[in-house]
User: Fold this.
Amino acid sequence: TDRSDMRSGIRGGPVKMQKMLIELMVLAGVLGLSHGAIQRPDYDDTPNPEFLNPSWMASIPDDQLLSEVTMPGTHNTMALYGGVYAECQTWSLASQLRAGIRFLDVRVRHVNGNLTIHHGVSYQRAHFGQVLEDVADFLREHPSETVLMRVKEEFSETYDIYGAVVDFIHRYAHWDLLWHSRLVPTMGEARGKHIVLQDFSGPDLGMRYGSLDIADDWKVPTLLHVEEKWQSVYEHLEAAPAGNKAQIFLTYSSGAGVFAYPRAVAQRINAQLYDYLRAKTDLNQRLGIICMDFPAAPIIQMIIDFQLKEVRKRRQAFNPVSSKASLKYTISSLRKKMIKRFAV
Assistant:
């Protein structure tokens, strides 16, 4: 009787079978594909980048707006500890910066004036002062670069971190290191500067995070929802080249959920992002900031390769005194005209 009940249950239960398959796929998101470290062109959860790119901004023209620069970033930059649900990176902050990362996403827990680094409940064995020191050291060694850093409160609800952030800047960095304006700087103005993207209330410390054009659909409940996540990334990247060039575009490729932890999502999304970028033949376009979990050195390089090469030429066409050579030419031609006029 038991056996016949089982047979009829299986025969009459395609819905049950479907549910079981879904549960298995969900479980795959929890267990992941591999326990060992992986280093692919798009995804890297090993301790060190395959190669470094510490001074790539040196080739960006001084008169180019930072909003016109395409750059790689990391989501939850300091989230190196806490298990599969909390970990989003495996490289130290210094390694990320040397690898070419120029946008940082930093979350601070505020307790009695102290700012510790957290991802949710997981303490990341660091405080905000160490982050500031690492950025200051990097900019001192590489003055051609700039670093943008979103700062937001996490795992505390004081809604009052401004004073503590200012205190930490004075203690661990220096005030002049910061870009003190809401306006988007040119690359020349930004060099050597730490640009705070302020995701908290209080007087201006730098640019406001909310002023960016942001796609951050981070909720990926299960691995069955990865395609929806990719669609969000794809649509924002497609909009970026024609979008407002005076506004910074920021696209997060990261995502997670109860049944899809960051590594599992990144292994899939990073691969799609890599293929998407590789398929593009025109590198002369602005994609904005692309913010990732577990990026690899080759995909970082690929993002850096997308730059507006024609900006400088276009500006010079409208402004003939934008370079020393053209300034000399203008003075010389004016002198000739004046000589002719006085000769008559």
In short: DSSP finds eleven helices and ten strands in the chain. The first strand starts at residue 71 and ends at 74. The CA atoms of residues 89 and 274 lie 18 Å apart. Residues 2-11, 317-334 have pLDDT under 50 and may be disordered.
